[in-house]
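Quarterly update from the structural biology core.
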Amino acid sequence: MSLTVPPDLLRAAESGPVDDESFVACVRESLPYAWQTVSRVASDLAGSDADFADNEIPPPSEADRGQLLRALASDAIRASLERHFGVKLAFQNCHRVAAFRPSAVDSDAYRRFTSVRGQLLNQSPELRDC
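Predicted structure, tokenized:
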């Protein structure tokens, strides 16, 4: 299971739409490593003039790697994180997540990061099992 859903949030979802704030709180509590990683790259981006900021540090454990994969593989979780932090997320190699300014999504930097070439150049023997 990727999220630990509190009973009141589950009841709310069974009754109708759930607001982003409640869902983001569930993500933050359920996937703390993923939350910290995305929060850090979003904060790094906000504190700079760069088009993007990224994380190149592999997760300390397989459980942490799993959190990051679950967060970024889920359309709902990824989209809510993007809305919450005001960024566009891009992802490579089970740990390299980047936060881009929405205005940079059409930039050379974004195209390089998300390209087939960028993916291939970011490979290493240590990452082949992820």
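The two ends are 19 Å apart (CA to CA).
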